[in-house]
Amino acid sequence: MEYLDVFLVSIGGTTTALLVIGFLSKSLVIHIFNREIERYKSQLNYENNIAIEKIKAELSRSAKNEDRTIEYELIMKRYKGPLLHAVYDLQSRLYNIIAQGFVNAYYIKGNDSERDYVVNNTVFVIAQYFAWTEIIRREIQFIDFQDSESTRKLSELRDNIYGLWQTDSFSDPFRIWAGEQRAIGELMIEDVNNHHSCIGYAAFLNKLQNNDEPLIKKLQTDVESLSKSGTDSFNRLRDIQHVLIDILDYLDPEYIRFPKDRRSYVP
Asked: pLDDT tens for residues 184-207?
């Protein structure tokens, strides 16, 4: 007897054998199918987890960017007004010196009181500007802005003025290093209700009574030298005045605080 016949007899005939083989085949298919399903589910879960982590990371970055933007806006809301006035006061004084003969009229031809005002008030508006830029620098120094357009422009304009004050490309006495600009600003800062502020003109005059700050004394000497150097000092001051106007236009583009006809470039 053939081996197949023996096998068929042993399991009860051809029909029974086919049923067994069919059952085994079906079980094998189901097993393979279930295994593939589990593998697919595992792969799907892995990909979903990666996608979810990417979404969470993106949401976290967006939230941090939003927090940085809000924090910057709160800082600028607090200090924008004082900075604008400091910028306007300084550009106005520079305009008067260069285009309106301010030094000639009130220092060279003025009395003692007028000469004191020309020197001391000019030093004050310069130092006041340094103070407010230093205050804002302190407030935002720990904010990671990355590629924030809202701060890049202001930083660029501020850095331009830092560079114009300290460059040696002008032949005048008004050279002030960036570190000295910050130091002058620091001398003008006071804390009011847990916020930084700049001292007023009266407090500045009181400070001058016991003035032993070499940086302030140098500024006074620089202003006094305008009566002798004349237009030699105007190139630096003109370029600074132009950038100050750019800052006004950036911070007050709608001319809400200062009208357009009061913020003109020195010719």
From this structure: 999 999 988 888 899 999 999 998
Judged by DSSP in three states, 167 sits in coil
Query: 141 lies in which domain range?
Result: 75-262
Distance, CA of 215 to CA of 205 (rounded, Å): 15
Please tell me whether residue 190 adopts helix, strand or coil conformation: strand
CA-wise closest residue to 174 among 221, 113, 127, 212 = 221
Same domain, 140 and 245: yes
Is residue 64 in some structural domain?
no
122 phi-psi bin (left φ>0, alpha ψ -120 to 50, beta other): alpha
Could you give the CA distance from residue 55 to residue 116 in angstroms, rounded to a whole number? Answer: 64
Same domain, 85 and 25: no
Q: Whole-prediction pTM value?
A: 0.72
What's the helix, strand, coil split of the chain in %, to 5?
Answer: 80, 5, 20
Given a contact cutoff of 8 angstroms between Cβ atoms, the answer to whether 249 and 241 are in contact is no
**CA 136 – CA 95 distance, rounded (Å):** 25
| pLDDT tens, residue by residue, 122-149 | 999 999 999 999 998 888 765 555 556 6
Q: Would you state the structure tokens that stand for residue 65, as one six-digit string?
A: 């960017």
Q: In sequence order, which ranges of 12-144 are alpha helices (DSSP H)?
A: 14-99, 102-103, 112-140
